[in-house]
Amino acid sequence: MTHSDSVLNLGPNAYGKPSAAFHILRDTIIGRERFDFALREYARRWKHKRPTPADFFRTMEEASGTDLDWFWRGWFYTTDHVDISLDSIYKLRIDTEDPAIDLPRRRKELADDPEKVGVGLNREARVPIWVLENPGITDFYDDNDRFTITPKDRKSYKEFLESLDEPWMRPAFDRAIKEDANYYVLSFSNKGGLVMPIILDLTFANGKTERMMIPAEIWRRNAKRVSKLLVFPKGKTLAKVVVDPDWETADADIDNNHYPRKIIESRIEAYKAPDSKARVNRDLMGEVRGTEKNEAGRK
Amino acid sequence: MRFLTLLMALLLAVPAAAHQQKITISTVTHNPRTEMLEIVHRITLHDAEHALKDLGVTAPDIVDDAGSQRAFATYITKRFSIMREGRPVDLLLLGSEIESGSLFIYQEAPSPGRGSELRISSQILTDISSRQENRVNLGAGTKVETLIFHAGDDFQSAILP
């Protein structure tokens, strides 16, 4: 905190930044009702007195009933900025441990992998395949792959089920298998340094969207890197995630807010795009009234 | 008493936005998609109009008068230069637009590529106000290097990120 006589760039630092901070606090973090109540309470408690910044911070926290230490610290005691990046999303699925289900499932996953280039080239070049040319020479490994169920697999499945010896374990495991939910792990990094709530716009494969707000407390144990587990019922598949879709947390770099990533035009690219100026620089009111000449020069 | 009231009213009537910033922020970035060096100058309209007043324009109107906006943009580009390997880079003035109380002026040139050394000078409005401070940000988003220029400062070197 710098005394106002010594503030460099008084305009942005004393007007622009606090204004942005209070708008975010009021509209996004604690809500208008509690913010307005707390600000009134601050004015009432401190009228005719000489409050210091700490008096303001304390009163706002107490009257709104919110722990805002992280907010004052980031916005008023550091020069950090907000830039939260959504780095990656992993999709997880619970294994049933049952070889009769898991192994065919993994075989199917492997079948979706691209074919090996060499195999495709050999087919094109009609390279003869030895086992097909000589029917008598096939063995066990031509009829079985690595996902063939063996007695050893069945035995370890049985042992696994027996290892669930607490009474709650088996029902919990059975329920998780039955639900077969979609688990997603979202990894975020805090590139700007200032901790803020993470606001997410989740778009699902069926086109439906959901809004989610993760409070700033998620950064409590690690202010640089966090991950969040989201669980959705079977069939509800995540397709796209956007951080801070309404640009309400002052995130300075929106390039890393989209997953999958999206190309964001630079200011100059947007300015050069043919339709960027078309409507902004037009005399829309004149056109509506019919007093503005159109492109052909007629009214 | 009436005089005192008037004086009070005048004193209170100075709105917060009446502060001149006396800061111009220029951003120099390499655009990997277009392989261009993109330069955006941002100056508050308030500063720009005061500068024009100081230059003798009685009622400057950058917002509605396209001519004075263009003239001001041309002035800005004359006070900003980039040198590369001892030669000035020819920066093309693309145009200007107004957004949220600021005038944005756009320039570009073929980019020498990431990691190349540039020598930059920003003397925008320093001929009008000695308090003027010009900032040149290299790069965009979170990783930004800033050069600060005051009246009379020489070229400063920076690596294009």
The tally of strands of chain B reads: 10
Label the structural class of chain B. alpha+beta
Distance between the termini of chain A: 59 Å
The most extensive interface, with participating residues per chain, is: A-B, 23 and 24 residues
C-alpha Rg of chain B, in Å? 18 Å
Number of E-state strands of chain A: 7
So how many helices of chain A?
A: 12
Whole-number average pLDDT of chain B?
Answer: 84
Termini gap of chain B: 62 Å
Keywords:
heterodimer; A: 299 residues; alpha+beta; 4-stranded antiparallel β-sheet; 3-stranded antiparallel β-sheet; 12 helices; 7 strands; 40% helix; 16% strand; B: 161 residues; 3 helices
Describe this structure in words.
The complex is a heterodimer of chains A (about 300) and B (about 160). In chain A, helix 2 packs across helix 3. Chain A is extended, with a radius of gyration of 30 Å. With about 300 residues, chain A is α+β, with helices and mostly antiparallel strands. A four-stranded antiparallel sheet of chain A has the order 4-3-6-7, with no helix packed on it. Chain B has a six-stranded mixed sheet. Chains A and B meet through helix 1 and helix 11 of A and strand 1, strand 2, strand 5 and strand 6 of B.
Could you write a compact summary of the structure shown?
The complex is a heterodimer of chains A (299) and B (161). With 299 residues, chain A is α+β, with helices and mostly antiparallel strands.
Summarize the SSE layout with pairings.
The complex is a heterodimer of chains A (299) and B (161).
Chain A: H1 10-29, H2 32-46, H3 53-64, H4 69-76, E1 84-92, H5 99-111, H6 117-124, H7 130-133, H8 140-143, H9 151-163, H10 169-179, E2 182-190, E3 198-204, E4 209-214, E5 225-232, E6 238-243, E7 258-259, H11 267-272, H12 284-289
Antiparallel strand pairs in A: 1-2, 2-5, 3-4, 3-6, 6-7
Helix pairs in contact in A: 2-3
Chain B: H1 2-12, E1 23-31, E2 36-44, H2 45-54, H3 66-78, E3 80-84, E4 87-88, E5 92-99, E6 102-110, E7 117-122, E8 133-138, E9 145-149, E10 156-159
